[in-house]
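ok here's the first one, seq then struct tokens
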Amino acid sequence: MDQSPPPEDDNPAPTRTRRGTGRRLHGAIAHKLGTDIVSGVYPPGTVLSSEVEFSEALDVSRGAFREAMQVLAAKGLVESRPKAGTRVLPRNRWNLLDPDVLAWAFAGEPDENFVRGIFELRAVVEPAAARFAAERHDREDLRAMKEALAGMRRHSLATEAGRAADRDFHDAILRATRNDALTTLSASIGAAVNWTTQYKQRARALPRNPLPDHVKVYEAIASGDGEAAAAAMRVLVDLALEDTRKEMAQN
């Protein structure tokens, strides 16, 4: 994670970028500012530059900038108040499970506490989900899991197609729980799986093949053994955390 000191200016402004139009533009602005906020370039409490200053610095319309700030506000990263300006909110206000926020966190060097928190969440949610899936799945659920495993095997996790299949596997398990509250976590869990997998192989190949761990989870679910499914998923998550920690230690 970038440990450089924040700008001394009370109202920091970004470097100038190229002008664009439409949804892609305000999405690009939100991505840049979101990444800067999550990485600590603009720490909590920072009052950002005015709309006019930021728009001029980024060479974008004020409308596009306002839309980008609305995106960040909806994710809990900033808050705008009349006369007080736009301020970066404390981390406990951020929607850390939002797929975009997860992507921004892994755009650079993620904070170790953030990574640990994500894996602790997975360690709480996914073993329980695997247990429920073993007890409640139907043939369609098993078919979806099996197809996802085949995709992981065919493409490998070094490719986007393979990582998409990995996300599909975890999604299928959550859907098999028949628990709507758990299913709503699918996008967040999938994003966490995707970005940590990408992070682990940015500079080198994955330290091991995680496919056998996924197969063990599937086999336990297919056999209807809830305890074995939970245990297998717990091992899968723990090994993924260990791999991620090793990668972080080498950077």
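and now the second one, same deal
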Amino acid sequence: MITDRKLTFYHAAPSRGNTVHWMLQELGIDFDVKMIDIRKGEGQTPQFLAINPLGKIPAIVHGDTVVTEAAAICCYLADSFPEAGLAPALDDPKRGAYLRWLFFSPSTVEPALVDHAMGRETGDRSMVSYGDWDSFLSVLLDVIGKADPWIMGKDFSTVDVVLGGAVRYGRMFDLLPENPVFDDYITRINARPAYLRMQEIDAPYVAAVMSA
């Protein structure tokens, strides 16, 4: 357990930072937040580029450790604060499946949703991480459909934060089709107190962006 180092969360709402903010709320730990207005170029300042040279949100600084990329941050946090029970231990047989579905989101789900949103034809399925849209959708429906009630079984985990957040995003913008499998899972997510806290805290920032 790592508790003696200051944790600073660099966030923008709405953005992938919402996923990390939700994770932090699930952990129930103390952290500082620095809001970065990426639309005003605050992600391109020398100070922030020293943290993430791509100028992207989210990022965390935990003591001297810098972590970027939402799924990597969530994985790091779950392992750093194991008392929250959001990740199988390193020697747990479930660890492999946990990592598989945790990183399925950034490596497969997000590229599929972006291509679908842009109307891009993939052509050669060997050139994209998800193969083709129909195959991808079939696998995603199978994974979410087997959630009982969560992807790793009875216990909520970091997989539900990362992959669940992507599924929720996909349905919010109609990138994923209406389906009871997705919608029932999202209903369970929406009822989590930590998710509701994240939404409430981020609401003023989201409203400001939407009204700009």
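notes on #2: The first strand starts at residue 7 and ends at 11. Residues 155 and 169 are 22 Å apart (CA to CA).
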